[in-house]
Every structure is written in C-alpha cells, then in structure tokens.
Amino acid sequence: MRELLLIRHAKSAWSDTSLTDRDRPLNERGKRDAPFMGSLLRFRGMQPDRMVSSPARRARKTARLIAWEVGYDKDAIVIAEQIYLGGRRAIVELVQALNDEDERVYVIGHNPDLSEAASCLTGESLGEMPTCGIAAIEFTVDSWAHVMEGTGRLKFFDYPKRHLTP
Predict the structure, then answer these.
(1) Residue 75: partners with Cβ closer than 8 Å, 6 or more residues away
(2) How far apart are CA 84 and CA 142, in angstroms?
C-alpha cells in the first residue's frame, strides 16, 4: 500500500509586484492555513516518510509549516524542480520514481498541475484544488513505479475553508 498526498501551496501574497511568480511569499491567511492543515494531518496520524516540494517560495514555506506540525525534519524536504510548472505528467513521473522505502509521500505544488494529477490518478474529477487543499490518494501497489492513471483511490479531499473562515 502506498499513500500520496498532493498538497497545493497555501494562499500567497500578490502585493509586491516586483517579485517574480517563483518568489511570491505566503500571505497571512496562508501562514495560518498551512500549520492548521498540518495539524489535521498529525491528528489523522498521517506523518510522511518523505516530503517533496516545488522550489517556489510559497510552496517551500507551506512544506516547512506543515513539516513542523507533523514532526518532519524541514531540512529533509526534497526540492523537485519539475513540480514547478512541469505539468500533470511531470508529477505522475515524479511519483513513479519515488523510493519504495517511502510508503507515504507528500508532494507540495501548484495548480492546475496538482488538480489534474489527482484527477488523473484517481479517475475522479475534483475540480480546482483550493489553496492548501490536500488530496490523499491510496494505491494498492508494492512499488511506486506501478502507479498508473486511474489506479488510485481517493482517501480524502480536504481544505482550510471546510474548517476555517477566510
């Protein structure tokens, strides 16, 4: 059994127009939502074996805030360039290349790629994943290399606005 958690970065700030897309930070709501969602994962007993993040500033910060809540070493977060604007296929290929020693993996990235990857892997249309949304997907395979389109089962789909006011 393998578990993949696709996590969209928390809400980012758009106020500083001098920053590139890659360098945008989290806004105050994002800084609140990421630890909250991490605490929900901790409560569910879903600590990761591995965390992989986009190199974008808002994704890395989301990953670090969640890591703190679930007891994962923030220095062990793997940065994967292909998550940033690589498309759905890049995410699926990254998943297929994961180390089989890691049974539960978090991938922190961006839309539309994460929403499309979640729909592709589960065969379910989840719509657009909200900021800091989490799609938890189970695979009944012995190796990540055997993960294919439509082979996953959506375990849950959660996001901050289900629990917190904006």
Answers:
(1) none
(2) 28
pLDDT in tens, 120-132: 999 999 899 999 9
Taking the C-alpha atoms of residue 6 and residue 108, their distance in angstroms, rounded to an integer, is: 6
For the chain, strand residue ranges (E) read 2-8, 50-53, 78-79, 104-109, 134-139, 153-158
CB burial readout 133-166, b (16+ within 10 A) else e: bbbbbbbeeeebeebeeeebebbebbbbeeeeee
Indicate yes or no: pTM above 0.90: yes
pLDDT (tens digit, 9 = 90+) per residue, 61-81?
999 999 999 999 999 999 999
What number of CA atoms fall less than 13 Å from residue 49's CA on the CB side? Answer: 11
